[in-house]
Amino acid sequence: MRKAERFYILFGKHGQVGRRLLERVQSEIGAQVLAFDREEYDLAGSSSELRSRLNQIDGQIEKFRNTHEIVALFTAAYTHVDGCELRPEFCRHVNVTNTIEVLNHADRNWGAKIVFFSSDYVFDGRSGPYLETDVQRPLSVYGRAKKEVEDWIETHCADRLILRTTGVFDYDRSSKNFVMQVLERLERGQAVHVVRDQYATPVWAKELSDATIDLVRAGAVGVYNVAGGGPVINRVELARAVAQAFGYPTQNIVGISTASLRQPAARPKQGGLLSHKTKQLIGWSPRSAAEALRILARK
Ligand SMILES: NC(=O)c1ccc[n+]([C@@H]2O[C@H](COP(=O)([O-])OP(=O)(O)OC[C@H]3O[C@@H](n4cnc5c(N)ncnc54)[C@H](OP(=O)(O)O)[C@@H]3O)[C@@H](O)[C@H]2O)c1
């Protein structure tokens, strides 16, 4: 029988998504929350140290297992895509080996529902936006790491939710997300060079977090896309939407090609995700990036 109340264990509480998830679960009546970041659980450290730290909280969770659904929300990751390409062993250690260490512990020792955040970078970007069922063919070390963890979860965890997302943004001065980088340059009156040939369906971190918890509450199991509403847009269109929302002229925004950037990691060009399955289950109706940005600009 499903339990009415939930005990959330959140990894990555200071990240863009983690912060919004924390706000959301802390407002849920009857919910228990344990939230961590790298100071408590460093995925870059040794796996044995990580295991012994995880063992230390078994007792705290055990007390609630009869009354609460235990939910492990795993947002933590080394998200620097080019950094992953340049340091593949480090990326694998953080994003695969130690990520699986935590997810395995949460599944086996806590009986937790596993909620893992994946990406449209599991696709090659030849034919996006993608459905959950499309064939994966990651182009980068980061994308391959996401796919490897997805595959592990599918094989080992019965109660699992793999959320694929793309182009997550929020208004957060401490974040280096695309929107904040564009905004900083616009504020300084600097030229903003952005690629015109990478397409995605950007999503506001708050709406992504709300959909995550609504999917958990609805008992969703398997892979779900959680992307923004509105059309698939390229980075020039997104940068223009930032300028328009925050009242800056758009003429400083210059479109360039991906090839000219010579980034270490290849990016999916025709990326983005279709969230029909998520919308159908929870009646979700995410805003377009332009609408979400206008809300953020008013705050
Ligand atoms: N942002 C996007 O556009 C996007 C798109 C697709 C998928 N995703 C996935 O969605 C999830 C959330 O993304 P996000 O935008 O919230 O990422 P983010 O802002 O970069 O946050 C990542 C989180 O992981 C933590 N972390 C990094 N290295 C760690 C380590 N060695 N040990 C423990 N924690 C560590 C960070 O801690 P610190 O604060 O201490 O650095 C931070 O809390 C990630 O799994 C990401 O791969 C994101």
What does this structure look like?
- The chain has 299 residues and is an alpha/beta fold.
- The chain has a domain at 5-169 and 203-228 and 272-287: 3-Layer(aba) Sandwich (Rossmann fold).
- Helices cover 42% and strands 17% of the residues.
- The protein is built from 12 helices and 12 strands.
- The protein has helices at residues 16-26, 47-55, 58-62, 81-86, 88-110, 141-156, 178-187, 205-217, 235-246, 258-261, 276-282, 289-298, and strands spanning 5-11, 32-36, 68-74, 113-119, 160-165, 168-169, 192-195, 199-200, 203-204, 222-225, 233-234, 253-256.
- The strands form 4 sheets. A 6-stranded parallel beta sheet has the order 2-1-3-4-5-10, sandwiched between helices.
- The protein is globular and about 60 Å long.
- The protein starts with a strand and ends with a helix.
- The chain binds NADP nicotinamide-adenine-dinucleotide phosphate.
- The site of NADP nicotinamide-adenine-dinucleotide phosphate (NAP) has 24 residues, from α1 and β4.
Give a topology summary:
Layout lengths: L4 E7 L4 H11 L5 E5 L10 H9 L2 H5 L5 E7 L6 H6 L1 H23 L2 E7 L21 H16 L3 E6 L2 E2 L8 H10 L4 E4 L3 E2 L2 E2 H13 L4 E4 L7 E2 H12 L6 E4 L1 H4 L14 H7 L6 H10 L1
Parallel strand pairs: 1-2, 1-3, 3-4, 4-5, 5-10, 6-9, 7-12
Antiparallel strand pairs: 8-11
Helix pairs in contact: 1-8, 2-5, 5-6, 7-9, 9-12
The protein binds NADP nicotinamide-adenine-dinucleotide phosphate.
The site of NADP nicotinamide-adenine-dinucleotide phosphate (NAP) has 24 residues, from α1 and β4.
